[in-house]
Design brief:
By secondary structure, this protein is an alpha/beta fold. It is about 20% helix and about 25% strand. The protein contains 7 helices and 14 strands. The strands form 2 sheets. It has a 7-stranded mixed beta sheet. Strands 7-8-9-10-11-12-13 form a 7-stranded mixed beta sheet. The N and C termini lie close together (about 5 Å).
């Protein structure tokens, strides 16, 4: 099994002989408007893809959409993704994906089986208080297969009871976290920062944690450098902070 960070939350999983694309966002650098009410007005994405879209789509068997915000499913991905591939999503996004001409949308209420893989949907909190409610529902997915490590893709969430429950219930060997500590000028962060990431590590100290969702969207302010420094200073183990395009084998 391996994980390739493409950019931001877009990752490619090689799992049980299948290639799965998670949260595809294909826009070129600086072609999208910045997130409003943030600390800067840089256009998104902040960087280009590390590979071409043609390379990225060369061998994809399925797609997972944790939620349909534009940094997880953008117009360019909607245009270029093959519409006949199975797309696994949370129930709240089913109608939207069907309306976008995807022909094989598979809404996951609790869990489903595909190609010898169990896909289990988990919950999350995309922020706190009223802001968290305004951000809408988000999901993560646990992937299980007989001959593979258990993988938990947490999605856009902070540390919360839903994440703690997913770790407790499924004992993931690999956890993918959306870092970046995304935030607005007011309110608490809406994705994981250093403290959240450390809490995940403390809850599952033997899990290998892969932190993505960094340095590519204008309101994600936690840098790889700062996170790596925090990991080193606090002597945290098994936490990986890949650069765009990097492949990690497990």
């Amino acid at each position: 099994m391996n994980i390739q960070l493409i950019r931001h939350a877009t990752i490619k999983l090689q799992f049980n002989g299948q290639t799965i694309l998670v949260d595809p966002m294909f826009s070129s650098k600086s072609t999208l408007a910045p997130v409003a009410n943030a600390a800067n007005e840089c256009k998104n994405p902040l960087v280009d893809l590390p590979i071409t879209v043609e390379e990225l789509l060369g061998e994809i068997h399925g797609i997972i959409i944790t939620h349909s915000h534009r940094d997880h499913l953008d117009d360019r991905a909607i245009e270029l993704l093959p519409k006949d591939l199975p797309v696994f999503c949370q129930p709240e996004d089913e109608e939207k994906l069907i309306s976008l001409a995807f022909k094989d949308v598979r809404s996951v209420e609790h869990e489903t089986e595909w190609k010898g893989i169990q896909l289990i949907r988990t919950g999350g909190q995309h922020g706190t208080g009223e802001l968290g409610k305004l951000m809408g529902p988000v999901s993560g997915f646990v992937l299980q297969s007989e001959d593979e490590p258990v993988v938990y893709v947490a999605g856009d969430t902070i540390w919360c009871s839903e994440v703690e429950e997913a770790i407790s219930n499924y004992s993931p060997e690999v956890i993918v976290l959306n870092g970046g500590e995304a935030q607005y000028l007011t309110g608490d962060p809406i994705t994981m920062g250093v403290n959240d990431i450390e809490k995940v590590h403390r809850a599952s100290p033997s899990s290998k944690i892969v932190v993505v969702h960094m340095e590519s969207w204008n309101h994600c302010l936690l840098t790889r450098r700062d996170l790596r420094q925090y990991i080193e200073t606090n002597q945290l183990s098994y936490i990986f902070v890949p650069d765009d395009g990097m492949i990690l084998n497990f």
